[in-house]
Amino acid sequence: MLAYQHAYHAGNFADVHKHLALYSLCTELLRKNSSVTYIDTHAGRGVYPLDTTEAQKRGEYREGILPLWKKRKTLANDALLNEWLIALARLQKPGDQMSHYPGSPWWLEQQLRRQDKLHLYELHPGEHRHLTQAPLTGNIKRYQADGLKGFKTHVPVSTPRLCALIDPSYEIKSDYEAVAETLGYVARKVRHAVIVVWYPLLPEARHQALLEGIRTAGLRKVWRSELLHHAPEGERGMYGSGLLLLNPPWQLPERLSASLTRVAECYGKHASHHQDWWSPE
Questions:
Q1: pLDDT per residue as tens digits for the range 153-172
Q2: Domain 11-278: which CATH number of 3.40.50.12160, 1.20.120.50, 3.40.50.150, 3.40.250.10
Q3: From its phi and psi, is residue 68 left (phi > 0), alpha (psi between -120 and 50) or beta?
């Protein structure tokens, strides 16, 4: 299925959840000099102008990144959120308004060093065309191919460390099982791989198939973070965002959880953040 285009959802609360975690993870990885191979399995366009027809049609950024942007002075006492919002400001046009929201390729490219590698996968032909035109520089390779299958071809990697983001749209229900299978495969090949997996929280609770797949694979050191934006409404619609982090750096879950609690406070009384360690037992 090639219908999904993230431009309609850029900057929503799931992007905030995902990209704050990705930024904090990359910051931790840079504390060591050894090189890293980064893999983004579903890269999208890279950068999203917020004045496009797609972004304006749903306007999801207005309930995602925009509340944090408006409160950035108040959030300055949270070191992680402050650094993340300062990085985000570098992409904006002059003035106080938010003009662009970056996708995961931009966040990864911002912290890419000369010794690191970045592999970007995007299967959708139109989205990949945008990706090839995105203002990204460095040791980067772009592929119009299936990201989960492509990920497997890179392991074991040539660098001492591996970091990946897996975030399909899950429009195909089998993606949940496919992600779990891919995670298990990579973990067997690269024992210390650090991998972020995103999933939507829906009333149907489809993500349970992903969690069960991870349980079956016997994966350990998996931290789970769920950001609830609002109460479930009806039988459809994403009400929250979930992340699984395999082999998180020491103390990262605690720091990230504190910042995500602040994020939830910006979203109102029905928002909250929950975290735990997902164990196969």
A1: 999 999 999 999 999 999 88
A2: 3.40.50.150
A3: alpha
